[in-house]
Write a structure and sequence with these properties.
The complex is a heterodimer of chains A (356) and B (478). With 356 residues, chain A is mainly alpha-helical. The radius of gyration of chain A is 30 Å and the shape is extended. Helix content of chain A is 74%, strand content 0%. Chain B is built from 14 helices and 13 strands. In chain B, the strands form two sheets. Chain B has a ten-stranded mixed β-sheet with strand order 3-4-5-2-1-6-11-8-12-7, sandwiched between helices. In chain B, strands 10-9-13 form a three-stranded antiparallel β-sheet, with no helix packed on it. Chain B has two domains: 113 residues, no CATH class; 305 residues, Spore Coat Polysaccharide Biosynthesis Protein SpsA, Chain A, CATH 3.90.550.10. Classes of the chains: A mainly alpha (356), B alpha/beta (478). The interface between A and B is large, with 63 and 53 residues.
C-alpha cells in the first residue's frame, strides 16, 4: 500500500478516504452476511418452537390443553405474537380457553415486563396481550399510554382499555378519539364496532352535545359525527336533527345530515338541498333518497340540472330510491328533460338500476 | 494560469464532486435506515388479523393500456382480486392498434354503458364506455390515442372514488398492496399521494397473476437491476419521505387524492415523465400556496415489474427516465429555492439537479478527463489511482448499503445462495454497469439540450407470468 501512497498531502488524505471506503464496504459485506445468518438461525428456531406451540394452541378450540407450551426467555415475543394471532382468529369458548391457557402460563407477567423494558414492537405486543387478557393491574399505565406520541402504541393502548372495561373508559376515550387526528378513523371505528352500539352511543351523544357549539372544535365534532354513523341507534335520531340545526359550517352540516333518519327532519333536509356548498347538497339528496317521499320527486328532478356532477348523479339515484317510483316513470321524465346533462345522468342511473 | 493549473483544478473538481455526490447519497442512506427501522417496528403486528371498519377509503384503479392484448386480461384479473374492501377498476384503452379491446370484450363480457362522462380534465375524444357483465366494478374507456398521461386523465374523469391508483398494465401487484399504500391516507388527512416499492419480477414465479415465489433472474442485466431497484427505492425514496420531499412516485403503482390532482390540472401530456412531473408539481403548488400536505413513500414491496433484459431496451428506458426527470424539474423550476419551498425546494430539488440531472454529465466528463489526462501524462499515476479508488470505493459503500437495508427490513430473497449472488452483484455493478448507465443518461441530457426528439421504441415483454387460473406456474424472463 505504501507503494501507492501519493506524495501530495491532500492526495494522501483523499487516498486514505478511498481506502477507508473500501474497508467500510468490506465490513458492510460481512455485516450483511452475519445478519443473514442471524435471520436464518432465528427463523429455524421460530419454526422449531412454533411446531410445538401450534398444536397446543389449536387444542384451545375445544379445551384448555393439559400440557403448557414451553417458552424460553428469548422466544417470549414470538409466543405472544402467536398467542395474539390465535386470539384474534378465534371467538367464543375457544377464546376463553386461550385466555385460560395464558393465565396458566402467567403471560400477563411477561407482558407487564415487556411493556416497561421492551422495544417498540415488544411494547406493542405486550399492550395487546394485556388488553386481551383483561389485565386491570396496568389500567393507569395503559391510560397514560393513550397520550403517547406514537399513534400505533397509543391506539393499541386505547383498544386494550376498551377490551378491559369499555363502559368505564369510553366517555373519556371518545374525547381523545375526537382530538387525535393522527388516529386513523378506520381504526377508531373498528374499535367502536367491537365495543358495540349499546355501550358506545351514549358517550358519543354526550361528547357531540358538549362540543357541537364550541368555537374552534369543528374538526373534533366532524370526527365524532363520523363515529356516530357507525354506532347508529334509535337514540341518535332526535340528536341528529338537533345537531343538523345547530351546526353552521358546511362540513359539519354534511356530516350531521348523514345521521338523519327521522322523517320529521325532512324540512331542514330539503332546505339544505339548496345549500351553496355542493357536498351539503349531495348529503341532503342522499337523505331524501333514504327517507324522502313522492313529494320530493319535483325537487330531485330539478337537481338533475345542478352544475355539479355528483349532485346530479345523487339526485338521479335518489329519484330511483323514492317509494313507489318505477324505472318506467323515470324514463318518461327523461324524455321530457330539455337539459342534456340531466337526461344523460338520469339515463346512466336507469342503466345502472337495470343492470344491478 | 498554466495548463497544469487547469488540469489540477479539474482533477480536484471531479474528485470532490464524486466525494460530494456519494456523501449526499450516504446521508440519504442514514435517513432511510432510521425511517425503515421505525416503519418495520410500527408495522410488526400487521399480520395479526383485524376487522375491517368499512371506513377504508375507496379507490379507483386506473389501468392505461396501449397495445397490451397479450397481458391485459391477466393484469385486470389480478387487480380484481386485490385484498381491499372497496375499489373499482377502470381500464383505459388508449387507441390500441392491436386486439386489446377485443381481449377485454371477450374476457370480461363488456357491454356499452350510457355513462354521463364528466370531462373535468381535457382529453382526446372518448369513443365509448363499457361495463363488465361479470364484474360490475370493472369499466373500460375506449378512447383515441393520446399517450399514457392522456389515458390517465380520461380515467380520472371517469373515476368515482376520492382516491385513484395508477397501475401499469404489465405490473403484478401484491394482494395486500392497496391496503399498504392507502394506509398513509388514513393516518394523516393531509396525505395527497403515496407510492410503494417496485421490485423486479424477472426470476420470480407467478400463478394466475399473483406472485408465488421470489427468485433472482439469471440474466445479468436483470440481476443488476434487482440491486438498482433496491437502492432506488429503499434509500433513494425512503430517505426523502420523513422530510416530506419525495419527488418521484413510480407510475407503475401510486395512489393519489383525486381532487388535488384535478385541481392541479391532472397529468401533463407534453412530457415523457408524467408520473414524476405530477409529483413535483404537487409539491410546488402546495409549498408555494402554503397548503399543508404530505407525499409519502411506503417501503413495502407492493408491485413487481418486468425488467428489460436486452441492452438496447434498457438503454431506451434509462434515456426516457432521464429525459422525464429533466423535464419534470425544468417544468417546475419555480420550486427551486422558493422562499416557501421547504425541504422539497431547498433540499430534494437541488439534490436532484446537482446529482441526478447534471450528475451524468460530471461523472462521464470526470471519467473521460481522468483517463485521457492520465494517458497523456497530464495527471500523475497517484492522482489517477486516488480518483478511481474514491469513485469505486464510495460506489461500493452505496451498493452494499442498499443490500443492508434490505436485510434489516424485508428479506425478500430468503435462500442462502441468493444473498451470495446479490453480494457478488453489488460489487460487480460498480465495474461497468453503473458507468454505462451514466453514459446513457449523459446522452439523454445531450439530446434534451439540443432539443432532439427521441424515438423510444417498444418495450418488448415476455409476459410469461400471465398464466390463467389454474394454469402452470411460470417464471419471468429467467
Amino acid at each position: 500500500m505504501a507503494l501507492w501512497m501519493p506524495q501530495d498531502p491532500m492526495l494522501q488524505m483523499v487516498f486514505m478516504f478511498g481506502i477507508g471506503a473500501i474497508i467500510f464496504s468490506l465490513l458492510l459485506l460481512i455485516l450483511v452476511f452475519l445478519l443473514r445468518v442471524r435471520v436464518l438461525i432465528r427463523q429455524r428456531r421460530q419454526r422449531f418452537y412454533e411446531a410445538q406451540w401450534q398444536p397446543l394452541l389449536a387444542e384451545c378450540v375445544f379445551a384448555v390443553p393439559a400440557q403448557l407450551p414451553q417458552v424460553s426467555r428469548n422466544m417470549r415475543y414470538h409466543f405472544l405474537r402467536v398467542w395474539n394471532f390465535h386470539h384474534e382468529s378465534l371467538v367464543g369458548a375457544s377464546r376463553a380457553n386461550l385466555k385460560a391457557l395464558a393465565r396458566a402460563m402467567h403471560l400477563e407477567e411477561i407482558a407487564r415486563e415487556l411493556m416497561y423494558t421492551g422495544n417498540l414492537r415488544e411494547r406493542m405486543i405486550a399492550v395487546m396481550t394485556l388488553g386481551h387478557l383483561g389485565d386491570r393491574t396496568q389500567w393507569h399505565e395503559l391510560r397514560a399510554l393513550v397520550s403517547d406520541p406514537s399513534p400505533v402504541l397509543s391506539l393499541l393502548a386505547a383498544r386494550a382499555l376498551l377490551d378491559i372495561d369499555a363502559s368505564s373508559i369510553l366517555a373519556w376515550l371518545v374525547t381523545v378519539m375526537a382530538a387525535r387526528d393522527d388516529w386513523p378513523m378506520s381504526r377508531v371505528v373498528t374499535m367502536l364496532k367491537e365495543v358495540g352500539p349499546e355501550v358506545a352511543t351514549q358517550p358519543l351523544i354526550s361528547a357531540v352535545e358538549a362540543t357541537a357549539s364550541s368555537k374552534g372544535a369543528e374538526a373534533q365534532v366532524a370526527r365524532l359525527l363520523r363515529m356516530m354513523e357507525v354506532v347508529h341507534t334509535e337514540r341518535v335520531l332526535p340528536v341528529a336533527g338537533k345537531i343538523v340545526r345547530q351546526v353552521k359550517s358546511p362540513e359539519l352540516i354534511a356530516a350531521a345530515l348523514r345521521l338523519v333518519q327521522d322523517p320529521r327532519d325532512l324540512d331542514i333536509v330539503r332546505a339544505y338541498a339548496a345549500h351553496e356548498a355542493w357536498f351539503v347538497r349531495v348529503s341532503a339528496i342522499r337523505v331524501l333518497g333514504r327517507i324522502g317521499d313522492v313529494s320530493d320527486r319535483r325537487l330531485l328532478t330539478g337537481m338533475l340540472s345542478d352544475p355539479q356532477w355528483w349532485v346530479r348523479y345523487r339526485a338521479a339515484r335518489a329519484l330511483l330510491a323514492l317509494p313507489g317510483t318505477r324505472i318506467e316513470d323515470l324514463e318518461k321524465i327523461s324524455g321530457t328533460l330539455e337539459d342534456r346533462f340531466a337526461a344523460d345522468i338520469l339515463g346512466q342511473a336507469i342503466a345502472e338500476a337495470r343492470s344491478s | 494560469m498554466t495548463v497544469n493549473d487547469w488540469v489540477e483544478g479539474a482533477q480536484w473538481f471531479f474528485m470532490l464532486y464524486f466525494i460530494g455526490i456519494n456523501t449526499g447519497y450516504l446521508m440519504l442512506n442514514l435517513l432511510s435506515l432510521g425511517s425503515l427501522k421505525r416503519y418495520v417496528e410500527a408495522h410488526s403486528l400487521d399480520d395479526i388479523p383485524s376487522r375491517l371498519s368499512g371506513f377504508e377509503l375507496p379507490v379507483s384503479v386506473l389501468v392505461p393500456a396501449y397495445n397490451e392484448q397479450v397481458t391485459i386480461a391477466s393484469s385486470v384479473r389480478s387487480i380484481l382480486q386485490l385484498d381491499y374492501p372497496e375499489f373499482e377498476v377502470i381500464v383505459i384503452n388508449d387507441g390500441s392498434r392491436d386486439g386489446t379491446m377485443e381481449a377485454l370484450r371477450r374476457e370480461f363480457g363488456l357491454e356499452p354503458f350510457p355513462e354521463a362522462y364528466w370531462q373535468r380534465l381535457s382529453v382526446k375524444p372518448v369513443r365509448a364506455i363499457y361495463r363488465s357483465k361479470m364484474h360490475p366494478t370493472l369499466r373500460v374507456i375506449d378512447k383515441e390515442n393520446g399517450g399514457k398521461a392522456d389515458a390517465l386523465n380520461a380515467g380520472i374523469n371517469a373515476s368515482r372514488y376520492p382516491l385513484f391508483c395508477s397501475v401499469d398494465a404489465d405490473s403484478v401487484l401484491e394482494r395486500v398492496s392497496m391496503r399498504r399504500v392507502v394506509q398513509p391516507f388514513l393516518e394523516n388527512p393531509h396525505t395527497i399521494a403515496s407510492g410503494g416499492s417496485i421490485r423486479i419480477a424477472n426470476g420470480c414465479t407467478f400463478d394466475s397473476g399473483f406472485l408465488t415465489s421470489k427468485g433472482l433472474p439469471r440474466n445479468p442485466l436483470a440481476l443488476f437491476q434487482v440491486v438498482e431497484y433496491m437502492r432506488a427505492f429503499l434509500f433513494g425514496r425512503l430517505g426523502w419521505s420523513p422530510l416530506n420531499a419525495v419527488l418521484i412516485i413510480s407510475g407503475a403503482f401510486g395512489v393519489f387524492r383525486k381532487e388535488v390532482v384535478v385541481k392541479a390540472g391532472g397529468y401533463r401530456t407534453d412530457t415523457v415523465g408524467e408520473d414524476m412531473e405530477l409529483v413535483v408539481r404537487l409539491h410546488r403548488l402546495h409549498r408555494t400556496g402554503n397548503i399543508p400536505y404530505r407525499i409519502v413513500f411506503v417501503p413495502d414491496p407492493v408491485c413487481w415489474t418486468e425488467a428489460p433484459q436486452k441492452l438496447l431496451v434498457l438503454k431506451n428506458q434509462r434515456m426516457r427516465w432521464q429525459r422525464g426527470l429533466i423535464e419534470s424539474l425544468t417544468l417546475n423550476i419555480g420550486l427551486l429555492f422558493h422562499r416557501r419551498g421547504g425541504t422539497a425546494g431547498w433540499l430534494a430539488f437541488p439534490f436532484m439537479v446537482l446529482f441526478e440531472w447534471l450528475g451524468p454529465l460530471v461523472e462521464v466528463a470526470g471519467y473521460c478527463f481522468m483517463i485521457t489526462a492520465f494517458f497523456t501524462g497530464l495527471v500523475s499515476l497517484e492522482a489517477f489511482v486516488t480518483f478511481m479508488l474514491v469513485a469505486f470505493g464510495l460506489g461500493l459503500v452505496l451498493s452494499i448499503n442498499s443490500l443492508l437495508l434490505e436485510e434489516i427490513s424485508f428479506h425478500i430473497y430468503q435462500k442462502p445462495h441468493q444473498i451470495v449472488v446479490l453480494l457478488l452483484v453489488v460489487v460487480l455493478e460498480n465495474f461497468g454497469y453503473r458507468q454505462l448507465n451514466s453514459v446513457w443518461r449523459f446522452w439523454a441530457l445531450l439530446l434534451w439540450m439540443f432539443h432532439f426528439k427521441l424515438h423510444w421504441g417498444e418495450m418488448p415483454r415476455s409476459a410469461s407470468w400471465q398464466t390463467g387460473p389454474g394454469g402452470p406456474h411460470k417464471g419471468v424472463g429467467q
